[in-house]
Design goal:
Elements: E1 2-6, H1 11-22, E2 26-31, H2 42-45, E3 48-51, H3 57-64, E4 69-72, H4 90-110, E5 115-119, H5 146-156, E6 165-171, E7 173-175, H6 187-190, H7 193-197, E8 206-212, H8 213-225, H9 228-231, E9 235-238, E10 241-243, H10 245-257, E11 270-271, H11 279-283, H12 290-301
Parallel strand pairs: 1-2, 1-4, 2-3, 4-5, 5-6, 6-9, 7-8, 8-11
Antiparallel strand pairs: 8-10
């Protein structure tokens, strides 16, 4: 397969490019300027890099021409903000993000691509407050902000076309080591003097859901490669574990001291909201790394 990717330099992008190359796919990625310095080795040399802009029709044609599928990861937002990423200009935010999604789908249709995977988000469920039930793939979305509404609207594009196969993935918070390592999620936190010295009860035990970038990449690959009748027109939840500040502190300290402690014996986080059920992905063969992958990641960060 030959896969086009937007947003390749983002947090999920490097994990996805690596997964695609390891699986034998040819990869073409759209970037605005030059190849990021943190892409080394095969990520730099084996990916076909296309310089262009999602707002430019010629760029989109060059990106998708000859490809079998496309993964749309790109998201224009204020630096460091997903929710609230519209800042003071929601009109530009919508024109840029939703407009580029429509343009990419239209370009993919005109070039006869077989599969489009849209990156959605857990944010489509921010207004779901039923603590007693897990959020399934079929739970009705209730976005409460521009980010969630944008992703929900993008998911709706799946229902407009019968001549191209479109599906969506809804990751929760994504973690994992990226380059440079200082830009990895939690790097500053786990290496802070606060984590090393403050009493444990100073840290919040309110949980939030997380999934490793490697597992997100695996999920995307399953949606690209899976049988059309099992994935097309569907949105898949993508969540793995529940983590809190306090849990991360406990885990970091056990690794730093070299003291072996079973993860199950650490004080568990208290979920702040209903947990996303990822059974749809698991039926396709998805097997996330769980707390073992979290532990290995923290070990690399400290």
């Amino acid at each position: 397969m030959k896969i086009a990717v937007t947003g390749a330099s983002g947090y999920i992008g490097s994990f996805l490019l690596q997964k695609l190359l390891q699986s034998g796919a040819s990869v073409r990625a759209l970037i605005r300027q030059r190849v990021p310095d943190f892409f080394e080795g095969e990520l730099r040399n084996e990916v076909e890099w296309i310089t262009g802009d999602l707002a430019n029709a010629e760029s989109l044609d060059r990106l998708v021409s000859g490809c079998t599928g496309v993964v749309h990861l790109a998201y224009h937002h204020l630096p460091g903000k997903y929710r609230g990423g519209e800042g003071s200009d929601p009109v530009e935010y919508w024109n840029t993000n939703f407009g580029s999604t429509i343009s990419l789908i239209e370009a993919s249709r005109s070039h006869g691509l077989e599969r489009v995977v849209l990156l959605s988000s857990r944010a489509v469920f921010d207004g779901v407050t039923d603590e007693g039930s897990p959020i399934t793939d079929s739970t009705t979305p209730r976005p409460t902000n521009h980010y969630g509404l944008l992703k929900f609207a993008s998911e709706g594009m799946m229902n407009l076309f019968d001549d191209i196969a479109i599906c969506a993935l809804r990751p929760t918070g994504v973690y994992g080591v990226r380059r440079p390592i200082e830009k990895s999620k939690w790097f500053e936190f786990v290496n802070s003097s606060t984590v090393a010295n403050d009493p444990l009860d100073k840290f919040s035990n309110v949980g939030h859901t997380e999934v490793h970038g490697t597992d997100v990449a695996e999920a995307i690959y399953l949606l690209l490669d899976g049988p059309a009748n099992q994935v097309v027109g569907r949105s898949f939840n993508c969540s793995d574990i529940v983590v809190s500040e306090r849990f991360l502190v406990q885990l970091t300290r056990t690794i730093q001291t070299g003291e072996y402690v079973e993860l199950g014996k650490l004080e568990p986080p208290k979920p702040a909201q209903s947990i996303m059920n990822s059974e749809g992905l698991k039926h396709l063969g998805w097997k996330p790394g769980g707390f073992e992958r979290l532990s290995k990641t923290v070990e690399l960060l400290i």
